[in-house]
Amino acid sequence: LARYVSLTAEEKHSLEALEEQTRTFRRGATIRRERDPARELFVVQTGWAQSCVLLGNGSRQILRFHFPGDIIGISSLAHGRSAETIVAVTEATLCPFEYDKIAVLFQRHPRLSALLFSVAVAERSAVADRLVSVGRTPARARVASLLCEILARLSHSEGRPVSEFHVPLTQEEIGDATGLTAVHVNRMMRGLVEDGLIERNGAMVAVPDESRLRSEANFVDRLAHLDTGWLPDPS
Amino acid sequence: LARYVSLTAEEKHSLEALEEQTRTFRRGATIRRERDPARELFVVQTGWAQSCVLLGNGSRQILRFHFPGDIIGISSLAHGRSAETIVAVTEATLCPFEYDKIAVLFQRHPRLSALLFSVAVAERSAVADRLVSVGRTPARARVASLLCEILARLSHSEGRPVSEFHVPLTQEEIGDATGLTAVHVNRMMRGLVEDGLIERNGAMVAVPDESRLRSEANFVDRLAHLDTGWLPDPS
DNA sequence: CGACCCCTTGATTAGCCTCAACAACCGTGG
DNA sequence: CCACGGTTGTTGAGGCTAATCAAGGGGTCG
Questions:
Q1: What is the pTM of this model?
Q2: Alpha-carbon gap, residue A91 to A24, rounded angstroms
């Protein structure tokens, strides 16, 4: 799960104790609804999920996609009830654990809790980057930026550079993540293909020149240099 | 600083030890530049600050405003270098403290570190809410939403409902926070005045009917119910 | 085979941006 | 004291980006 620092045996043991059960969800299934009371986190084991907010007028803003290894629901921790709706993008298996266990973690393992803290902070940065993209860049750059983010995160979790990947998102979902309509996402993606920035084959996307796509998108890869130097020593 | 749970004497002592010195900045002064190495946090004592991202084409997205009592720079914690530029909106006095001291905090005071964690998570929610506003609501609602957020946060830090407040922001700054141009912010604000949702007198803004402004803005006040029940016991 | 979802494309509309000009206000220096 | 430049707020006219509306095609599942 945490691939950032090497863990002690005891720390590993504590983490594994959290993953007792798993739950599976079908594509499109709602995992948690906005304003539901929330007393547990999830770790994604397989599949993709998304967290989004639904507005009164029927529109939706997707805040973040969650890949295998990601932790979902940290953001509900401070409020007791979920601030966002969580939906399975593909068929997905999640592994829930309760907040109480986090409290235990904070008491027993300062370094692990600091690490969890880092993860939460990194997520804030990611949401902020999306905000910059949506607030201040044109449609084409927003789509490119989302693709860059997915690419960077997949590469990071694979542990090696990836240049071709499966995107199980509909164009409507891409639109809801970038603040566009499905129709306009379509046009932008065709434009990117036409200009050789990406290649498409069904749900497969290939990026021949990542740096070119990144400059088109104004993308900064923050995952590349996560700093763990400030963490306390293992206790 | 932390007005969420009652602290033990020892916890208070540890917090006060952090605030040794203060620094003051003039209006518009850059406190920290993007990509600068960052090894300290700030607590705002007086004045307003903002964190923003500057793009290549000269535009800027303001991610968040910081008021007295807020902690700035948590987001740089995971990366070692600042992910955003921090600027003083008004003349401001800040009080810096180093990351190393946070590590100590995590080891000695599980409950305080969990509280800091909550603050970080709440900030993620706030950025996410802004993303929803910018991504999926029209200009008028975005401006209204920003005003609602400022109002809610001021009320929260005052500890009582506020209906009239001083906004030291230029319309360009409001635009950079909401993803609009200064010109369009102007038109939207005049529209809000015209429809009786707000009143303006120079930099003073009054909100006669907060609930009406909130429904115009699709605003949800998350500060109202922060949950601290999951925190571990004081050690 | 039909129903449904998703992608695709065209035509039109509307929301917001750009450019431009001017008034009000401020601190500065003569 | 006033003249001055600089910043901010205000308003108008016109243009462009992205939304809306609409229609058709391919794929999959029941």
A1: 0.94
A2: 7
